[in-house]
Amino acid sequence: MLNIGTVAVIGSGTMxxxxxxxxxxxxxxxxxxxxxxxxxxxxxxxIRQRLTSRVARGKLSADASEQILARLLPVTDIQALAAADLxxxxxxxxxxxxxxxxxxxxxxxxxxxxxxxNTSSISVTAIAADIHHPERVAGLHFFNPAPVMKLVExxxxxxxxxxxxxxxxxxxxxxxxxPVRCQSTPGFIVNRVARPFYSEAWRxxxxxxxxxxxxxxxxxxxxxxxxxxxxxxxxIGQDVNFAVTCSVFNAFWQERRFLPSLVQQELxxxxxxxxxxGKGVYxxxxxxxxxxxSETVSKRFSPIHVERISDGVTEIDDVxxxxxxxxxAQSLALRHQRPVVVVDRMExxxxxxxxxxxxxxxxTQKAICYLQQQGKRVVQIADYPGLLVWRTLAMIANEAxxxxxxxxxxxxxxxTAMRLGVNYPNGPIAWGERLGWQxxxxxxxxxxxxxxxxxxxxxxxxxxxxLLESSYxx
Length: 474
Description:
By secondary structure, the chain is of the alpha/beta class. Helices cover 46% and strands 14% of the residues. The protein folds into four domains: 6-184, NAD(P)-binding Rossmann-like Domain (Rossmann fold, 3-Layer(aba) Sandwich); 192-277, N-(1-d-carboxylethyl)-l-norvaline Dehydrogenase, domain 2; 299-380, 2-Layer Sandwich (Transcription Regulator spoIIAA), CATH 3.30.750.190; 393-412 and 431-473, no CATH class.
């Protein structure tokens, strides 16, 4: 299994070329297959340019660059792939195309040839269903750009041999990658657990809670994510991101928590694909709009008396400043019979707030003044339950626990995948542990009551962990 000499890569697009570069850089002869010879030429030219850049920066010797290029062999006859020990398919993301291709490969190649797909969400079990020796079929999902990104998802279908998965994990490590193992399920680890990061942002935009730049700033600067969700979809490509969401949604039998966004669909229909087309959520040919931070409040609003009543609740004169637990500011104001300002998670210097419509303006200004005195930049959004950061974190952690409970992957591999695959500042399960399972459970239950939707249903493992957390504390 581990004696992998020749590697074949099917498809010479961005991912195929990147994977071919990785394999050739680690000493393998690489058969680069495409039905169009000019596509292979473009791919190899792109690899040559990247290697030349590395040589110019002193990251690679000229001799090593030439050796890597010499290992890349263009192939337009699929029969030639019979010489490969490992085949990595990085072609069309359509099941019927993959099934036909793998059936042809199984007929051409000897039984010991490992057949893998770089698919990001299509069932490995389905790909392998109709071929001889399905135990040698697996997913080998790289992340873009493949030469740079460390993560590789090694995906086992129903028939995949454990020895095949072991061999692929060892190969990925030999290539300087970090493999994570998972079962074939819609979206695997990363594209499943990451869905709420995008979907909660689209929902906020649909409900006109805040402008795109505020939503992105909240998640980026208040949540610690490297990019905001809307700007990230522009970078990925709205068509690509929307297609993955639709694929996961349909594969889960229209599970509501994966519901695609009509706003995103409109962008795709309009051809506004993001950075690659010049326009998406943002106009990439102009300046990105700036966040409308609250002006510095006059000192006459400085609070007279500040008292921390409990964890997450501060009294500022007659105003309650409450860290969100999934209820609107107005519902809290009615319950407490006093002005309420709800604030989102504040890990950094940003404070996103929502205020009760019944608040006197002076009461809201006192809360803003207090937050500014704590060194926060404040931005106000509509009265939205769970605000932006807390509800997103709760949904991501809930999805990660659901994947864990259903045996998709181990806790360690789920956290590793999300840190390395999409650069989250923390793994979602470790993050949930730190944030508090009971807190996340309460927030989701409040959101479920508010919307009356299954979308915010807490998974049973979240309830179990919240219960254990409560018993430890008591």
